[in-house]
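Hi F.,

I've been meaning to write this up properly since the lab meeting, where we talked about keeping a consistent format for the predictions we share between groups. The idea is simple: the sequence comes first, exactly as it goes in, then the structure tokens exactly as they come out, then a line or two of notes. No screenshots and no reformatting. I'm using this chain as the first example so we have something concrete to point to.
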Amino acid sequence: MTRHDPLPSIVTHSRVRVIFGEGMLRRLGECVVEEGGTRVLLVTDPGIVKAGHVERAAGSLREAGVEVTVFFGVAENPTTDHVAAGVRVAAELGINLIVGLGGGSSMDCAKGINFILTNGGQMLDYLGVGKATKPMLPLVAVPTTAGTGSEAQSFALITDPDTHQKMACGDEKALARVAILDPDLIATVPRKVAAATGIDAVAHAIETAGCKRRTDLSRRFSREAWLRLDRAFEMAMRDPTDASAREDMLLGAHLAGVAIEKSMLGAAHSCANPLTAEFGVVHGVAVGLLLPHVVRFNTATGPNPYDDLNANPNALAGRVEAMLDAAGLARRLSDLDITATDFPRLAEMAAKQWTAQFNPREFGPAEALAIYTSAL
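Output, unedited:
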């Protein structure tokens, strides 16, 4: 293991046990056995299979004497259909533990499968917080991107394929027991994916730092995440083989995920979700594009909610824009062929998003329209 810094002591305030360091995927079987797993459903996607990570993960499980079945029917922004397909496989096998291996989509789908397999019904039944009434299976989460921090969160984000609504279904029973953070796994991520997921992690650190629901503890996680992501983002974009940058990005994304779990997000995510639902814009691309405009909006009429990050608002917004440029990500909605005629409809959708209520400044359709207009 070549970890450059020890795990920060703050991770002890998370309920997720963290295994961190190069090559730690080899400990997957050991961790699963410690959690009582004997028959495992490994939830992933075809890209992770192609990268060879699934073979290594399954090998670790089998060496530990664990029966494993791979479900790789996950796609970006998993829907209730993906969850239902996974539930059918899991129900036939009588599994007693789930492993989520991949980006946020794989981990979200794994949580969704867990909800329905153990508690029945449909995902809509769990929209909101604390709707599961029965115990859920242990989950071990292994991220292969430095982005969503889903391995640190009790929410599954599952899309209704008919309405395109992204449902946030949260319950503390859905939280992973163990997260394995292996920087080797993100070394093979395509640059475009690394850019989009990395800027999403940056947005998590910034939005949690300023949201209405922040606490003293969540603010510590936000600060710690930002310190790592701020120093590592450009390095990771320039050189994906840089071990130090990979470690900082992966751990920073995880810490930002814990910050979400202990607080919430804001208007950048509220405005980004309609762009994904209506135009298929990759989530990280959408949230990164909007983030500087949301920072400026939230600090235009009052105190700086991001003061924990030791940057004035204009400098913080400019810092994000520099990251977007370094990653080659879009800076304007017009770059994505989205025009002002779309804004009223998008603004109505943005105001209805779960995260809208936690934005530090009042946020409704009019405010969303102003943000979209500034980003044109």
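Notes:
The mean pLDDT is 94.
Strands lie at 17-20, 39-43, 67-71, 97-102, 128-129, 139-143, 155-159, 166-170, 178-181.

If this format works for you, I'll send the rest the same way.

G.
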